[in-house]
Fold:
Amino acid sequence: MSDIRHALLRRDPLSAAKEVLYHLDIALGSSLQTGPGLDKNTVDLVEEFIFHVPKDRNTQRKRMSCVQELQLLEIMCSYFQEQSKDAVRQVIFSALFSLQGNKADENRMATLGKLVSMAVAVCRVPILECAATWLQRTHSAWCVRLALVLVDDYCTLVPGSIATLQNVSSASPRFCCQLITAVTALYDFSSDELTPPPSLLDMVVGWITEDPRLLLLTFINTPLSSSLPLGCLEATPLTGLLRWCVKAPLASQRARKSAVTSAQPVQENGVVCEELYSKLHLSVLQVFLILQVHLTEQNLLGRLAVLQVESVAALVEEVSALVEELNPLHAANQIQLALDRLAQALQVAMATGALLCSREDLRTLCSRLPHNNMLQLVMSGPVVPHGAAFQPSVTAPSAELGAPTPPPPEQRRSDRTHQHEIGFRHEIGSSVQSG
Structure:
């Protein structure tokens, strides 16, 4: 291996990186039958000649120019596109970008962000599929960093390019599902800076209303016996999207309060975002109904919680803290809207078997929240039994899986979309009282 390294040192950076990639393909492609794995020497070559982490301080490495770096990304794109064996593609991608907990990880992430961004731009589906697996198996702290790169590239730096990112829903639905999960983990409304940009929100809502089943792809296609690494993204983006819907009214009021305090102009897109969050909330409730069908078919209804109690508890704590931060006298409407949405989601999640939680536990969880009539009904009334179908009479999906009828996008929240929310509210109230 030392002979290979000395030979690579005599090459220019691009040529050396290409040779290491070729060596990696041979080493891992031939070892698939006996179990994939890399010896330490090969790992060192990858880190030194692809990610440019010097083996020792006395070695002077020729760094790639921007043009050479772009050429290397094109070489990687071509390799993954032309590799016909999916198993080999996945293992090579994992060998390149699995984080090792060393100083090469920052370089890995920088290269990965550029590669996935390029794959989005030129629609390289094999790379997007590999990236979907990476997002599923990697700690969420790194996943949100990749998501931030894509948001910066397609929503912030060149806003008009978001249409390119929007196409990934049809090119690689699995990657799209994981990306939604990652961006909901990234934008948690803990500050004004961590509120999703309107263009990103609009794109996510468009994806979900077009195909609600998108949110369940990872969950449905992951074997129940498989155990994901600790700290990885959740199996569905439902928890993150629920956080968006519930906290959005409160975060919007917090932004207005901050703008008044700092004498900054108030954003003009507030009404548009309000409509989008209302539409998103309706879609999340409908996805719970779709999930009920899947759980029933797999004989998992009442046995497998998709929405974890711990996640709900964390959301309730976040809402409680945000309510305390606001002036209840000036934010009464926003607080009640947030609690209405929380109550609706809890009721539908419990009724469809997505959330396994007793009434006593629910009352304990929500004890710190302000009074809300709908939440009080949900905490006190019986839930629809797990074995029974939960079918709201308003905006119910059609019998075919994943074919809800979303409200027309041109309707304002104060008009039809808001009426759908009210419909769910009335239906939930009647189901609680009559149960």
In short: The chain is about 65% helix and 0% strand.
